[in-house]
Amino acid sequence: MALRRKTLGHVVLNVRDLKRSERFYRDILGMAVSGRNRRTKMSFLSFGREHHDIALMELPSKAKRIAGEGVPGLHHFSVYVGTDKEVDDLYPVLKRRRIPIVSGPEILEVARNRSISFLDPDGNRVEVACNRNKFKRRAPKGAN
User: Fold this and answer.
1) pTM (global) more than 0.85
2) 72: pLDDT confidence band, cut at 50, 70 and 90?
3) Is 1 contained in some domain?
């Protein structure tokens, strides 16, 4: 049986420095800290509608998973914004803060969304995309 409710609840990221990562997600994505668990070394961040959309968990100092090396991890996650301008306006902010840009701003080949991808302090890939085309489906070439 397939799931009926198809909404992403949240993403939990392993990080090296909880305070640094918390600051990054507040400053770059505009998230607010909605909770902290000092015992488990976790921070919970929200865009405002849910308790948390992203949780950050600080790795033990000897853990091997960091910046895409070691144990397989997340490829990327995406945050949708309302306009192409919001995507484009992020570029100079990332450059000024010397945040590594992976791609963009660009129009994605398949989804046709305006997108920019960059790395957080732990090497996790973050995409910010304008989602205006999400529900526009085109028939494949040759289909009636």
Assistant:
1) no
2) very low
3) no
